[in-house]
Design goal:
single chain; alpha/beta; 3 domains; 19 helices; 10 strands
Length: about 375
């Protein structure tokens, strides 16, 4: 009997070679038949409605395919998950051995789900109807955009785990040329009284200012441009940035620099989506509860990757699977739930950075543990 992992490989190669698609396969840590699949395909951890599609693909027209892969004995069990994928994909398929579809194919197609029948390594497609605007499509496509542009060694926006955005542009000032040894940059950052130079570097990578290659750090095109701008703005940019880092909100102390750094932040898909969430709120003085509500409705992957602790993700996915949208919002907006399962960085470092950049109006910023946050006074107001 052909395994799920081999079916996924056949389908993935068919989509890349015959359909000219970009393909991402979900790496199943608990299924041995998927072992080594990351050597043949890019992998993803993107969810739709609480489930991980076995395969995601983008065709040359930019349409999204979500595919549930099943072996011969479990095709019927895949119908429910495939139906869930319709909320976040233009086309949804179940893929499996041709012999397993004999009595199920028409039933599957009647649910608006396509079929990919695999036999002797060949794939035969029966296409489903096209879905124009699934409710979570934008959320899934944004996650795919991140997969396309992100170096695998660079994290999400939660990697920006220092209070001030200046911390993440500082590394570019210590390049004599457009590249430098790793140890040299680390040493210079330590001299600059940076206690955690790796955090500075990680942030600079995330903002696409530097990259690592051949045991060296290199400035990107954006990094070179920003370095040149800083040396035009200030006679001694290292000293100036050190001063600005220690006094008040950057947007009030140096609005030009705040605007420049903000531009780099807004190139990041996570930040763009988070600002879209805030812009989509009817309440002009939103609390964290309002943000959670709108994020669950519009961008559940953003909730998982920007707000939820890693150890709590499986539990949150189970909530998405078990409950309707309103019930999920009620559960996850409870202050006790937020304290236990939400990332501290959201309420501390990330909020501070958005205030420094003039994206958020100045408001109460908390310190200490997440238990210190008064959620009834945690306002997130966008600047006009």
């Amino acid at each position: 009997m052909i395994s799920e992992g081999n079916i996924a490989k056949y389908v993935g190669h068919y989509l890349t070679s015959e359909k000219n698609c970009s393909v991402w396969v979900h790496k199943h840590s608990g299924k041995s038949s998927y072992n080594g699949i990351e050597s043949e395909f890019l992998t993803h951890t993107i969810t739709i409605n609480g489930f991980y599609p076995d395969i995601l693909a983008i065709d040359p027209l930019g349409y999204l395919y979500a595919i549930e892969v099943k072996d011969e004995g479990s095709i019927r069990a895949g119908i429910g998950q495939a139906i869930a994928y319709k909320k976040g994909s233009n086309y949804v398929f179940i893929a499996g051995p041709k012999s397993g579809f004999s009595s199920l194919k028409n039933d599957i197609l009647s649910h608006g789900i396509g079929v990919i029948e695999v036999e002797n390594g060949l794939c035969e497609l029966s296409n489903p109807p096209f879905q124009t605007t699934p409710m979570y499509l934008k959320d899934v496509m944004r996650e795919i955009e991140i997969l396309r542009i992100r170096d695998k060694n660079v994290g999400r926006i939660t990697s920006l785990d220092l209070n001030h955005p200046i911390n993440f542009i500082a590394p570019i000032l210590f390049f004599d040329d457009n590249y430098s040894s790793i140890h040299s940059i680390h040493d210079e950052l330590i001299k600059w009284e940076m206690k955690h130079p790796l955090k500075n570097i990680r942030g600079a990578k995330l903002l696409n200012l530097i990259y690592e290659k051949d045991d060296k750090y290199h400035l990107t095109y954006d990094g070179i441009n920003l370095k040149n701008i800083l040396f035009k703005l200030y006679d001694d940019p290292i000293r100036k940035l050190n001063e600005l880092k220690n006094y008040g909100a950057l947007c009030n102390k140096d609005s030009n620099l705040s605007y420049i750094i903000r531009w780099y932040y807004l190139l990041n898909p996570d930040v763009k989506q988070f600002i879209d969430i805030l812009n989509g709120l009817n309440n002009r003085t939103p609390l964290i509860f309002n943000i959670i509500d709108n994020t669950i409705r519009k961008a559940p992957n953003l909730l998982l990757n920007l707000m939820i602790k890693r150890k709590s993700k499986d539990m949150v996915l189970e909530i998405f699977r078990k409950y309707d949208e309103s019930s999920a919002i009620s559960i996850m907006s409870d202050p006790d739930f937020i304290e236990k399962h939400f990332l501290k960085i959201l309420f501390f470092q990330f909020k501070r950075q958005l205030i420094h950049l003039g994206i958020l109006k100045q408001s109460k910023v908390w310190s200490g543990s997440i238990q210190s946050v008064n959620f009834a006074e945690d306002y997130w107001m966008l600047n006009d």
